[in-house]
Amino acid sequence: MIRSKQGLVSFGLVAAAVALVGFRIAGGESGPAAQEAEGHDHAAMTAGAAGERQPVRLSAEDGRRIGVAMTTVQRRVLPVSVSTVGVVAYDETGLATVNPKVTGWVERLHVEFTGARVRAGQPLLDLYSPALVAAQEELILAARLVREAGSGRAADNAAELLESARRRLSYWDVPAEEIQAIEASTAPRKTVTLYAPASGVVVEKNVVEGDRILPGMTVYRIADLSSVWIEAEVFEKDLGLVREGQAADVTFEAFPGRTFPGRVAYVYPTVSMQSRTGRVRLELANPGGELRPGMYARVRLDAPAAPETLVVPRSAVLSTGRRTLVFMAAPDGTLVPQEVVTGRAADDLIEILEGVDAGARVASSAAFLIDAESSLGTLAGPMDGQVGMDEMAGEAAPVEEVDHSGHDMGAAAPDTVDHSAHS
Question: Which of 46, 60, 191, 360 has the fewest CB atoms lying closer than 10 Å?
Answer without folding.
Answer: 46
